[in-house]
Amino acid sequence: MSPETMPATFSETMKAVRFHAFGGPDVLRYEDAPKPSPAPGEVLVRVHAIGLNPPDWYLRDGYSMLPLEWQPKVDFPAIPGTDISGTVEALGPGTEGFAAGDDVYAMVRFPEGLAGQSRAYAEYVTVPASELARKPAGIDHAHAAAAPMSLLTAWQFLIDLGHDEPNPLQPAQHRPVPFAGKTVLVNGAAGGVGHFAVQIAKWQGARVIAVASGRNEAFLRGLGADDVIDYTRTPPEEVVHDLDLVVDAVGGPRTGRFLASLKPGGALFPIFPLGFAGTEEAEKRGITVSATQVRSSGTQLAELARRLDDGTFRAMIDSTFPLAEARQAHERAAQGHIQGKIVLTVA
User: Fold this and answer.
1) Which of 145, 173, 151, 181 shows the shortest CA–CA distance to 52?
2) Among residues 251, 273, 289, which one ends one of the domains?
3) Sheet (strand 227-230) strand order
4) Element (H or E) spanning 29, and its range?
5) Which ranges in 102-166 belong to alpha helices (H)?
6) Residues 69-78 pLDDT 10s
7) Are 13 and 51 in contact, with CB atoms under 8 Å apart?
8) 162 domain-assigned
9) CA 271, CA 182: separation in Å to the nearest integer?
10) Which domain holds residue 256?
11) Which of 71, 245, 275, 287 could cross-link to 282 by cystine, CB 3.0-4.6 Å?
């Protein structure tokens, strides 16, 4: 057994952000926590940066927006977070494909870790090797950490689902639709998933209409948007028609307002589908409404790393905070109007 595959000698603690009860950003504590050890098939990663995502504050809040029977049981203290970029510290027994010193990135144990098993807000995290990929060499750790969940979500909705797991959100499996040469509207276009959806749709040859606040127009045109609608001035559903696809990165109960903007045979993909009540209307209009649950995939992240490396896709950062200031980062997220992603950095 090589030194890289030998179980490492671990110190007892590391710094992590944990919470001991559900609540607002103020429940997040930067404190000592046990340092994990990699099990067989896992990699121990020394974390350099962490990307924030909505499931982070959903977990912190106890998934209060979900029906009671859907709320996962969380054991305290819990460490939130899924998206990391860092350096391989050690490999668990029998783990292959990586070596100590490799720069890597991942979305950790999602959705399996919904109840807090991903544990990314920390100096060290264990990651199943199958969920890990080498970091794009052309970008830094902060930009790499900004990509995994948001980019995988956009990719799995629009290009390749990448798995055959049952869909927890609907009876049928989600299927991406061809949209090259067609008109695609992205609602919530300046946020994490939205700004990647804009880039993917443009890369595929679509005409892209981005919906966001007016201050984001230059940002979105720089990512390839052909038109930008300022929703604070003009309700997009009142001015756009004959769309082929709507990617609603906001989703929720209001996503049905876009049905009238789609042509028969079009598709509506709500990233957050809970609350949609327009199934009957969609069927009458001949519109497909479909969603899926993003899943960890080292294979897809390896493919996407090449496109992040050559600049085909760009991860944009709204703001960065030290890990010790996770509370302030969550407060920034709660303000909304995020341009790209919020990232925590680890010294």
Assistant:
1) 145
2) 289
3) 227-230, 207-212, 183-187, 243-248, 262-270, 288-289
4) strand 29-34
5) 141-145, 148-158
6) 888 999 999 9
7) no
8) no
9) 20
10) 175-289
11) 287
- For 219, other C-beta atoms within 10 Å of its C-beta total 19
What percent of the chain has pLDDT above 90?
94
How many structural domains is the chain composed of? 2
Q: Which amino acid is at 319?
A: S
Question: Using CB atoms within 10 A of its CB, is residue 76 exposed (0-12), middle (13-18) or buried (19+)?
Answer: exposed
Mean pLDDT, rounded, for 279-301 = 97
pTM of the shown model: 0.95
Is the same domain home to 101 and 193? no
Are 26 and 86 in a shared domain?
yes
Residue 185: CB atoms within 10 A of its CB come to 28
- Which amino acid is located at 258 in the chain? F
Instruction: Kindly state whether residue 190 falls inside one of the protein's structural domains.
Output: yes
Does residue 339 carry a pLDDT above 60? yes
Under the banding of pLDDT at 50, 70 and 90, the label for residue 11 is low
